[in-house]
Amino acid sequence: xxxxxxxxxxxxxxxxAACAARPPLLDERRVEPYAGLVxxxxxxxxxxxxxxxxxxxxxxxxxxxxxxxxxxxxARPVLVMLPGVLSDGTTWRFLAGxxxxxxxxxxxxxxxxxxxxxxxxxxxxDALYTPAWLAECAGLxxxxxxxxxxxxxxxxxxxxxxxxxVVLRLLASPALGARLADVRSEVAGAVLLAPADxxxxxASPLLTEIRDVPAWKARLGCALGVVQRKTETxxxxxxxxxxxxxxxxxxxxxxxxxxEPCAFAAAQWMLRRxxxxxxxxxxxxxxxxxxxxxxxAIGVPLLVLWGAQDDTLPLSTSGPLLARLxxxxxxxxxxxxxxxxxxxxxxxxxxxxxFVHTLRTRPTAAAP
Length: 368
Known about the structure:
This protein has a single domain (2-359), classed as 3-Layer(aba) Sandwich (Rossmann fold), CATH 3.40.50.1820. By secondary structure, it is α/β, with parallel strands linked by helices. It is globular. The model is unreliable at 1-18 and 364-368 (pLDDT under 50). The chain has an 8-stranded mixed sheet with strand order 1-2-4-3-5-6-7-8, sandwiched between helices. Helix 3 (93-99) links the parallel strand 3 and strand 4 (104-109). It contains 17 helices and 8 strands. It starts with a helix and ends in a 9-residue tail after the last helix.
């Protein structure tokens, strides 16, 4: 009876929300710089595959790997891009379009989204969707990609939000260093865009809401069109200067992910297992601190870019993270919130180019 009442109440509230005015969003194929960048992204020579990997814990899983090369096929430095939660490789379409003339680009779909498998706990075990498990899956997929190359390629990681955390785990974890030594030996450096700190004390209210919403309520909201409307509003409110950067395609992609039950469940598990938990399921901050301390040993150069107006992971959260990353340099990007790789594409692309240029004179150095 209580559940029935809750459903009726939720339906009433959600129905009212569905009547709210829709924010004006842009068509990225009709406005610059997005239209030109998407065209360049689409024109790049492309290879899409699903690589089956077997991490130490959990089942075998297929990982989507999308390789972009300039049409002339020349060998260039390789950028490996890992997205944040609720995103797949397509989140990089603008930045990849801006950089594909200079670099080869490998876009990875983390397990749970895009073209990758969506294994579900508890059958898959407690390791599924932790940053370390996601990092191992990414590293194993890169090992398979490297095996197809005429010679090992030097890699520069680019990770956004949770993707930045995954990069840090891959470079810092002693266990992953032992299992993936060949992959780490070819890493020249990494660009981290607003990386989520593994030792974070306060979670984002928006991400907490996504983590905790019951599955039935999410399904109901999708059926009524409320999730789609709320996603449009979130995209509009999530950028600086929405008249220039709030994109309809991004809202459509995000709502589609939220309304795909397995992808949404995977995102919730990523958020629940972002930090170690105690026997009551609460964040174990002492254990998180121990894992975060491993990042002090990362030896490759790091560039950390942060949106000045980020309200998902505010700039203030970068201090403790940077304090334990001795090789990191932080650059604050004005006119951007959390998705700075979309809001300020030209600035981020310029920073990536300049950073990789500094790496070309350095010998390859893997994190210990």
